[in-house]
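User: Predict the structure for this protein chain, please.
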Amino acid sequence: MDASAEHGRTPILSPVCVGSAVGGEGPPELLIPDETPYERWQELRRGRIGASDAGAILAWFENWPAKDRPYGSALSVAHRLAGLSSYDGGPVEWGTRAPAEMGRLWEDGCWLAYLARMPHIIDQGKPGTYSLCGSDVVVATPDRLISDPTRPEGMQDGLCQIKIAFSTGAARWREDGEWRPPRYVIAQLHQEMAVMGRSFNDLAAFIDGTPHVWRIEYDPAVWDSISRGMGELLDVIENKRWSSLIDGSADASAAVIGQASPETKDDCIDLDDDWPRRLRELEDFKELKKQAEHDIREIETRLRYDLDGSPMGLCDGWRISCREQERRSVDTKALKEKEPEVWRQFMKSTRTKGTLRIRRDQDAAQ
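Assistant: Here is the predicted structure, written as structure tokens:
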């Protein structure tokens, strides 16, 4: 059974509901009109899987190398879908990450540069946010609907996605000395095509101020992998298998701790019967802590990226500073090698409480 169906949701992918241009029958359903204010858009999109989530899901599902992964992660997507986080990594609202006028100018300039390069393209307007036919979970917000009359009949309707990248972000668009779209962007474009039922997606990008255009044709195999990854992710959320979304799972950590623990049964005492329940609660809290720390690192990394080396940034009601600092410390290893007597004079030992290590006792369970 489809994982999403088990969760009481409409199945993620119905074979006859991918869109007429790519082999399905049902049209997409308008979920959020284009003119909807951003705050309202966030409310309506919450709890759904947007096209910008596709790269993170596919990177996790196919275990991509770090260099190909997006800034977001499958864990943060699952965190949001489970209602554990309100952070939404959807489309950029100019004015929150850049001055609004500047952001819109770049976006409009990228679109005009695309039209200058592709004068035969027919602009069909901004579509808003649509949901996949047969699903109330999977959505997409393409930048533009377009048509290319030079393509074969039935394959002329397409999409256009606009991307802008500068500085360190631009480096992710270059591989082996050539400019090319990152894998996670290709995944986003495929979810947009699957939802909208269109056979191609033109990627119009300003990379460090230079315009580029790539035409991405719909590949059913890519969408199949994305949809299977979504089903697996929903199963993870349903069964709270959070460790499967984190590098170095809890099971692996427990195995290492077990190898490092020399105690024997003779050293043990029996604890209160209430402890199994409380230890399970502790495990849950630790998983939530891991998720929170991961999301904190992710947001802080994105914030450093948007600061782009500036010592300070301002947004509505917030002031962010990030200044380089110099920290000096004694290299104790080098000191011990070169001046062992001095090292001994200043060495001190202290006793601390024992490290609390908790793992499931397989012998006791049997």
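The chain is about 40% helix and 15% strand.
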